[in-house]
């Protein structure tokens, strides 16, 4: 994930508003207690997600892939008055850890956290338009998640997909390519060719692909 020279990355982080106390503790405890802590969005990307949410002021946010809840808390910061967030994750072992931080955040009454396979849960979502979707789950199903939620996304709504640069593997020679890299390459090309969206791929951390729905 380290695409920029470290001094530049450190400078960018130093000139980004700090994360709040709960997020800081969640960051530290995830690295101390949870497997694969690099899956955490972290300070800089978390502030980017928060900033996007504040700009959009969404009424309904869907997150696919909660992990320990860091990105959910960042996205919840910009919810409109009365807005809510639904976050989905398949890992029930992390549920007590994650719920403890959601409860401590001050957003517990605005975030619904469901455990299960997102492919099964998405068809049963509330029948209301989604303003913002953050996809950060198993990479092989990114395209399926996109297809499942697209019609539920309001016109002008946004989809953000994480890890679309996959530690730079998307530009490596394609021999011996693993299924995750192949899936992300296909997903990136799929979004880029979809005339229903405008999109930009930002080389922030492991890559954020942002797509705006431009029509029904």
Give structural notes.
With 216 residues, the protein is α/β, with parallel strands linked by helices. Helix content is 38%, strand content 20%. The chain has helices spanning 6-14, 21-33, 42-56, 70-76, 95-104, 118-121, 142-150, 179-193; strands at residues 60-64, 84-89, 111-115, 130-135, 153-162, 197-202, 208-213. A 7-stranded mixed sheet has the order 3-2-1-4-5-7-6, sandwiched between helices. β2, α5 and β3 form a beta-alpha-beta unit. α3 runs parallel beside α4. The relative contact order is 0.13. The mean pLDDT is 94.
Quick structural overview:
The chain has helices spanning 6-14, 21-33, 42-56, 70-76, 95-104, 118-121, 142-150, 179-193, and strands spanning 60-64, 84-89, 111-115, 130-135, 153-162, 197-202, 208-213. The protein has 216 residues and is an alpha/beta fold. The N and C termini lie far apart (35 Å).
Reconstruct the topology from this structure:
Blueprint: H1 6-14, H2 21-33, H3 42-56, E1 60-64, H4 70-76, E2 84-89, H5 95-104, E3 111-115, H6 118-121, E4 130-135, H7 142-150, E5 153-162, H8 179-193, E6 197-202, E7 208-213
Parallel strand pairs: 1-2, 1-4, 2-3, 4-5
Antiparallel strand pairs: 5-7, 6-7
